[in-house]
Amino acid sequence: MIISMKTHASRQEIDQVRGIVEHFGYKVHSIEGEERVVIGVVGVGDVTACMESVESMPQVEKVVRISAPYKFVSKQFKPGRTRIRLNGIEIGGDEFVVMAGPCSVESEKQIMQAAEGVARSGAKMLRGGAFKPRTSPYDFQGMEEEGLKLLRKAKEATGLATITEVMSDRDVDLIAQYVDVMQVGARNMQNFMLLKELGKCGRPVLLKRGLSGTIKELLMSAEYVVAHGNPNVILCERGIRTFETETRNTCDIAAIPALNELTHLPVVLDPSHATGKRSLVPAVSRAGVAIGADGLIVEVHPAPEKAISDGAQSLDLAQFEKMMRELKPYIALWETARKGEAMAAVAG
Ligand code: PEP
Ligand code: MN
């Protein structure tokens, strides 16, 4: 059950509601927005009596019964879509947003060339890892703060928003100073300390699906971030581990409409990690547009043959330009569909 308080309800009025909920034996988890407080009620058993009691309180705007284990991120809590605004763009709205750039930030020259190239082709956000989760401890671990500085420089030069991975709760404050969006990698989808810390970071979070994470587990992880105070979460399908070896991961394309049925949060597709092969990236990207993703996050490198990580799945700048050009008619259809959806919503 979720309780939405009236705007500007006083502290005392909020505490009264909490008191009633606790009286019925449930736990309270509140999100304090600038204008409004939303109280999540967690516990087992039939909530009807508690719900009726709270509904009659004058300071309460609305009470919604939510049966899913994830509450704040569910469509039952908030129909429609969450739109996340940053750096003049909107994810989850009327615009299909492409994020692109190298797997790792490797040098000033590399990230600048990548940034300028992807911006020219229509990307709105620059990706690049400064802290890298590598399977081997002997592989390149990322440029760390130097890499963050280069991302900031690339943003200043091109106007692109930036996204980078955060691997540890200890690095959250540092990384939040440098970039627009905090990426949680597949290997950290259930790093609950990190998710809780990101609830307080003040930046949107892009949460990747774990290598063997179910859709429900992905939503529960998103719930951690939202329940800890940050409503701006973007979900990312990046392929899951199956018995198939032809592709690096198996792209669970149906996860995108499945998530769109379950949550109001935006969903993007990562065709690079989902396939592991650059030749497959354009086709899978098209599928992402057609199936209703809110955007893509694509690996692009000015010289993929020299990339320190993930070169085989990275497009070069010309390949990215071609892909973006070929995606245009699909994105035009996507925009028409979104407009239709918005009109249907207004018509009720
Ligand atoms: C990445 O984006 O480079 C990355 C490490 O992705 P994932 O966490 O999906 O493996
Ligand atoms: Mn990568």
How are strands sequenced across the largest beta sheet? 7-8-9-10-11-12-13-14
> Helical amount among residues, as a percent range?
25-40%
Structural class: alpha/beta
Poorly predicted spans: none
Query: What kind of sheet is the major sheet?
Result: 8 strands, parallel, barrel
Give a count of the beta strands, DSSP E runs of length 2 or more: 14
Distance between the termini: 24 Å
Q: Quote the beta fraction.
A: 15-25%
* Cα Rg: 21 Å
Helix-strand sequence = EHEEHEEEEHEHEHEHEHEHEHHEH
Which oligomerization state do the chains in this entry correspond to?
single chain
Total helix count?
11
Rounded average pLDDT = 96
Distinct compounds present? phosphoenolpyruvate, manganese (II) ion
Label the overall shape. Answer: globular
